Amino acid sequence: MANFSKSNVPQFSVEVYQNAFLPEGGREVNAIVTVTSTGGGTTGGIPLPRAAASPGQVPGYGPGQGQGPSAAVVLMVDCSGSMDYPPTKMRNARDATAAAIDTLREGTRFAVVAGTHVAKDVYPGNGQLAVADARTKAQAKEALRRLSAGGGTAIGTWLRLTDRLLGAADVDIRHGILLTDGRNEHEASEDLRAALDSCAGRFTCDARGVGTDWEVKEVTSIASALLGTADIVADPAGLAADFTQMMENAMGKEVADVALRLWTPVGVEIRFVKQVAPTVEDLTGRRTEAGPRAGDYPIGSWGDESRDYHVCVLVPEAGIGQEMLAARVSLILPGPSGTGAPQVLSQGLVRAVWTDDMVASTSINPQVAHYTGQAELAQVIQQGLDARKSGDFDGATAKLGRAVQLASASGNQDTAKLLSKVVDVVDAATGTVRLKAKVAEADEMTLETRSTKTVRVKK
Fold first, then answer.
1. How does the average pLDDT of the chain come out, rounded?
2. How many separate helices (H) and strands (E) can be counted in the chain?
3. What's the rounded Cα separation, in Å, for the pair 137 and 145?
4. What is the pTM of this model?
5. Would 351 disulfide with which of 20, 47, 201, 278, CB 3.0-4.6 Å?
6. CA gap 312, 327 in Å, rounded
């Protein structure tokens, strides 16, 4: 097991892209905030002390400070009766979970939960977590082989059991992986929402729907609430590769519970805070107060990666030549056990400058323009698919045509390909399309599930 050195200390940086110039009377300030974490490494699951660190460096890393973050993962496997149709579905789910277990880093705490209308921790059992090594991995895979399908679906119970298991672990990273093939029919929607509310901020969770009998908005809402990813695996044969990739990503996380803190001067109103890459996620309603005129927005666990956020604020009117700080953006890591002073990892400033130069005040920053389009793209896809399902074919054609236009203009080729399976594209540049008479259910669900995926700004 390699020791951490300065070369693999996680470092965070914040870059702000904006056009700071406003015309006389102008109030709306938009900025794209790029957050980047670099230099983390595979760590072997050793708990870290929260020691002092230099600016931008995560405490607890570096020479003599341990070897990286400890982690705990719970795999939730749908074992409801529908998993037996076809019988290969349950077999593929077992195989995929086994592949994910093989990918666990040595020393990671883990458990397997079988989910039906109730939740059962089938390995290691008794409310415990196992520590990953060759022996426990083999035992877990043996437990998987004994899983069979039968019963209903109540996902909230799966999440609450996962929360209890992860909550008992003294680790840095807590993560869940959830697989379902059906709708959450054996508990009220309010029960699932209550479970998500109680689990939010306690662990992250990736959710996958297998086949085409599950509800897209249900699965994506789980991932959204728990700051994870959502996707469709239309063919159960693809589960093993997907689960392996998910677990590799989970094992690559170095830092948990990072927050974007927004401080604004007196008189400044926050319109919204959104993640805009790699997916669109509105964080505005997730703000928790963090002192006078400051609020924290949760941005989850981080490995070596970069994400973009769109911050929009309204400033008081000011005269030509005046300048003000519109907002200060900070990356925050909680203090030890959520107590003590938080660590400020990096900061960036959003400015406002009033000018009578029309060219300066009317030009739109390329990053802001790009991500405004990507957010609209996600929105019109959802609106178009909803219109199509409700029989409003004219509305669906208009919305999905606009989606084709936006995907083409921004170079979002993956989304453009998914759209082409739902509409016939006559002219991408103008958004002229025709709805296809027949659309495979898997193609429509894939487009809906992946509608929030974005592309970065072309350099």
1. 91
2. 11, 20
3. 13
4. 0.90
5. 20
6. 10
